[in-house]
Structure formats: C-alpha cells, structure tokens
## 1
Amino acid sequence: MIKINESTETLQNPGSGLGTPVAQWAQRSTRVASLAAVALAAAVLILVASPRPAAASELNAGSSPAVTAQAVIGDLGTYAVSIAKRYLGYRYTYGGTSPSTGFDCSGFTYYVFRKAGHPISRSLSTQRWSGTAVSRSSLRPGDLVFFKNTYRTGLSHVGIYIGSGKFINAQSERVGVAIASLGSTYWSSHYLTARRIR
C-alpha cells in the first residue's frame, strides 16, 4: 500500500514561487493524481486477470446423475424415451412392472416415467387422464399414446411416442417390448388418444 506523507511543509524559500505553500500543494496534487492513475491501472489488471464465472454446467456438477442427464437431454419426454429404449426386447408379463418380472403395457409406462423422476399412476385407466390431452398431429417424444379394442373392448393399450410416427410399448407375450408404427393399419385403426406428461 502506498502511503503519502501528509506532514506540513514549511516555507523554504520565500523568494521562490516553488517554495510557497501554494506551489507545494500543487506538487502534492500532481503526485496524488499520478498515484491514483497507477492504482486505477492496477485495478483494471486485477479485473482482467480474474477467473471467469463458473458455467451453469459446472455449478451443477454435484447434481444427481438422473437430474443431470435430464438437463442435458432437454426435457422429460425425450429423457423418458431414452430410458424406454433401454428395455427393447424385454419380455411381456401381464401385471409386470419391472425389468426383472417383465412388463405389461401400463406397467412399462409406469416404470419408465418413475425412472425418469416423474411418477405416474400404475393403472391404464388413470394414465389415460394423466397430464394434458394432445392431438395426434401434435405428438412429441414422450407423449403417451392410447389404443382401444385391441384385446378387449374400450381402452386397452398404451405406449410411449418416440417421434417419426413411431411408439415403444410392451406389446404382447410374443413380441415383448418393441417399437411399432402409428401409421400401420392395425395401430392406426385402434388409435384412441394421447396425453402429455409434464
């Protein structure tokens, strides 16, 4: 830290303008201004050399894997689809709700959304009214798609829309967890509605 000597100076040479208190004051003012300029330059250098603020991704480095993965992927729907695809080929079991037991259709959707951190009801009829309604033309990845009159009359099946006119579902004992096309004759004729979970 720079210390400026503030002691009172005496009149040294009354005949010389430089020895007067006014001249001495002017010299001191010039010196103080110079010191202020040096201090300002040092402050600017400190600011420039300071480390950059941490990015949001760095601040979230301690977040749980599920939350971090969801943030990176972008939204719940896309994240749910990425989880659902891990179980392609798993067996169909009526009443099943896990990879170890196998899945039925609503057991599969129940498991996937619970794994994604957004639990939904286990029952098909309750899932039918979860979230908000979406038209078939407005489907986005992660939307639940419902079907009627497949193996019984009325609401009877559910899957998860994955984009490009396709959905993933626990389809049947013969097929297991598989991807199917909404545009196929069978699924198109049995299509009922869709819901968006948010």
## 2
Amino acid sequence: MNKLLVAVGVIFLVVVLGVGAFFGGMAFQRGRMARAGSGLFSGVGPLGGAAACRGGIVGQVQSVGTDTLVISTTQGQVRVHLSDNTRVSKTAQGSLSDLQAGDTVNVRGQRDSSGNVTATQIQIVGQGAGNFF
C-alpha cells in the first residue's frame, strides 16, 4: 500500500509539473511575441537613424494617396505616411552575370563546416559596398 501511494504521488507530481511547464512555456512565448510586436517600429538598426528601423509590415495595398498608403494586414488596416524621402523599390529576376564586385547582397544558403555557403538565393540590395537602403 505504501509503494502504491508513493507511485501515485510521483505520477501526480510528474503530471502537475508537465502541465505547469506547458502553460509556463505558452505564457513565455506570448510575452516574447508581445515584446517583439511592440517594438516593431521603435528600434534603431545597424545604420542608425529613422531609415534603419527594425520592423515593417506585410500586407496588401488597399489605396494609394499623395501622402498616405493604406495596407491591409492580418491584424487589420495600417495607414502608412509617405514623404519625399520614402524610397520605393521592386525586385526583378536576375542572373549570375548581374553580380559585380562592390555590390551589396543578401545571400541565403547552407553553410558548411569551413564557413563557406552554398547559395540557394542571392538578392542584390544595392550597388556599392554598404549601400543597404
């Protein structure tokens, strides 16, 4: 009887700890997501200044005005203010011959044990080293 009571107590303790860990992890993740969302436009990136904010939005353009853009996101509509300093760019398909020394690029791929990367995608960000925006 004593061994049965100990076994039931251990099982109960394991279940309670498992449930507590699950809900604790859920609360931790919700907190991380809330902190990430609240700082979406508030950070300063590696270049400093307003042009280097960390965040952005992804959505569908609903309307374009002279100084305002309305974007529909999964969280609702967002009004985006435009100015003469707002830069607009678009991506076009390129080829390996488009790559030149001095270009700034984003490279995605698999890194090997030597630190070399086998590229699966290369995006030319700008002409000239350090030209991020």
